[in-house]
Amino acid sequence: MKSEYNNQFIKLILAILLLICLFDLPYGYFQFVRFASLIGFGILAYHANSNSKQTELIIYIILAVLFQPFIKISLGRELWNIVDVIVAVALLISLVLRTDKVES
Predict the structure, then answer these.
(1) Of the candidates 34, 44, 58, 35, which has an alpha carbon nearest to the alpha carbon of residue 10?
(2) Distance CA 59, CA 6 (A)
(3) Where are the domains of the chain?
(4) Which of 36, 48, 72, 98 is deepest in the core (most CB within 10 A)?
(5) Whole-angstrom Cα distance, residue 63 to residue 19?
């Protein structure tokens, strides 16, 4: 149960960090978000694997690779903003849906 709350916290933090990317910020912030996303999605992938949730595992691995800071995927500012919003909204939706299941 504790790992479920940790997952919710990670999802919330990642969603907030990704939505802040919509603002005009120094490049260092975006580097920080890439590292934080790699670590966060890595932890979420580990927990998904531990709980035998293969679909979630694959999604989190893909997101970790997409956001990883070592080999940059250059999509352009506008496309990155769209990706950031889609991923943030998906994280928030999964957070809300998961919260309903935890409280039941």
Answers:
(1) 44
(2) 18
(3) 2-103
(4) 48
(5) 16
- DSSP per residue, 18-60: HHHTTS---HHHHHHHHHHHHHHHHHHHHHHHHTT-HHHHHHH
Handedness of CA 47, 51, 54, 55 (dihedral sign): negative
Q: Which residue has the tokens 């800071």?
A: 69
Residue written as token pair 């293969």: 54
Contact indicator for 92, 19 with CB cutoff of 8 Å: no
Give the model confidence (pLDDT) of 13-46 as tens digits. 999 999 999 998 899 999 999 999 999 999 999 9
Residue 49 identity: N
pLDDT at 104: 45
**Which amino acid would we find at residue 23?**
F
Residue with tokens 């989190």, as numbered in its chain:
60
The owner of tokens 């496309």 is 79
* Dist. CA 48–CA 77, nearest whole Å: 30
